[in-house]
Amino acid sequence: MKIAVIGQGYVGLTISAFAGETYQVIGLDNNPIIVDQLNRGISHIEGVESDQLKRLIKGGNYIATNLGSDISDADLVVIAVPTPLTTNREPDLTFLDAACKTIGVNIRKPVLVINESTSFPGTLRNFIKPAIERYSNNRLEHLYAISPERVDPGRSDFNQKNTPRLYAGLSKEASERTREFYSKFCDNLIEVSSPEVAEAAKLFENTFRQVNIALVNEFAQIADALGISVYETLDAANTKPYGFMKFSPSAGVGGHCIPVDPTYLAAVAEEHGVPATFIRRANEVNLEMSEYIVKRVAEDNGGELKGKSVLVVGVAYKPNVADVRETAAELVIEHLRSRGAVVSWHDDVVGTWRGEKSSDLSGADISIVITKHDVVDAKAIMASAPYVFDTTGKLPQAHGL
Ligand SMILES: NC(=O)c1ccc[n+]([C@@H]2O[C@H](COP(=O)([O-])OP(=O)(O)OC[C@H]3O[C@@H](n4cnc5c(N)ncnc54)[C@H](O)[C@@H]3O)[C@@H](O)[C@H]2O)c1
After folding, report:
1. On the chain, which terminus has fewer CB atoms closer than 10 Å, C or N?
2. Among 153, 104, 148, which Cα is nearest to 264's?
3. Is there a contact between 105 and 121 (Cβ–Cβ < 8 Å)?
């Protein structure tokens, strides 16, 4: 079976690597640099090893392309393109629309289309199917299904094989063929009664994380005002063996999912006349953390940051990955610069960001730790400035949340 995977990023390349062990995979991406790298067997994603990619290419089980016409004889198409927010923070389905166009224009026979991109309930039924039909002039009758992706880049204990996967088709046949496809590389497949349930479950999973992170971030501020340790208090609460799940405070949320997906849920809720005030407020609390942290750092340093050299340590949105999408470091840097601080950043895992190279981990007046990668030495961070503020809870000797 020939599988086309549209989008070769975190989700698309991961699924391609797993599917490539059984099927022939064509990875379609409109970024020619990524395509070129992939065809040379170089993975740009944590969790997909270059050696595996090289082996799959050699065995004829993987090839990357940026030509839509190359997927014309696929038997199954997986969509894994970004679903970001517009500048007005509304769902942006333009990438999804472009993927539908690629399918509509190029695919020559009836196929199963599986969407793995995260979007609001109703996207498969009311957006993807009609768009593909429109772009193909209703030439073919495809099958449609959704199977939301749960990959956690950089994580080694859970992967495609042992992470339970939800799925649902628009028809019985679509569901059955979806199960058959994933069953070759996923141990636990859970069918739900409609695509809308699968789409909503994915959004709710991430909204659950978003509101709990916001809650603990608000609590960090309360704990500081009360003069008690947020970490000790959370550890104490966590001794309750039931009804409690520990989340840790941070400079905010980053990545493609937690800062974005809840807004998809809020948008669809509001469209149906349900005010999603809780979700909206959680998002605001997480975004406000950057300002709170800069305020705390300023207060500890005589109320003034003007002219001080501040090193932001760790600009990836989470440890041990190079992903900087929606990173809280960006807002922290903005707030520091608006107070006149001279800001640089250190993150050798990321290397280059916004056209700037990672600075040395030394010589600053103030260091603020946003993300602590395992490879970064805690002692070196503590020696990088006379004042260190830690937002990760990993540097007990530092000032912090
Ligand atoms: N990253 C995660 O951890 C994660 C987890 C679960 C779900 N998701 C969801 O999966 C989807 C993809 O996310 P991602 O993290 O893989 O994004 P990504 O940015 O890592 O990768 C997307 C890729 O798609 C390509 N692309 C964009 N439009 C295209 C088009 N029309 N044709 C071909 N290629 C195109 C881009 O060049 C990019 O390489 C999103 O909806 C996201 O919310 C992501």
Report:
1. N
2. 148
3. no
Q: Is 9 in the pocket of ligand 1 (CB under 6 A)?
A: yes
74 lines ligand 1 (CB under 6 A): no
For the CA atoms of the chain, what is the radius of gyration?
Answer: 23
- Calculate how far, in angstroms, residue 316's C-alpha sits from the geometric centre of ligand 1: 17
Closest residue by Cα to atom 26, ligand 1, is 7
Please give the structure tokens belonging to residue 125: 């039924």
Q: Just list the catalytic residues.
A: 257
pLDDT tens for 265-297 read 999 999 999 999 999 999 999 999 999 999 999
- Count CA atoms within 13 Å of residue 125 on its CB side: 13
pLDDT digits (tens, 9 = 90+) for 6-18: 999 999 999 999 9
Q: Is the CB of 201 under 6 A from ligand 1?
A: no
**Dist CA 23 CA 18 (whole Å):** 9
Pairing relationship of beta strands 24-28 and 143-146 according to DSSP bridges: unpaired
CB atoms within 10 A of CB 39: 15
Minimum CA distance residue for ligand 1 atom 15: 10
Q: Where are the alpha helices (DSSP H) in 20-135?
A: 32-39, 50-58, 94-106, 123, 129-135
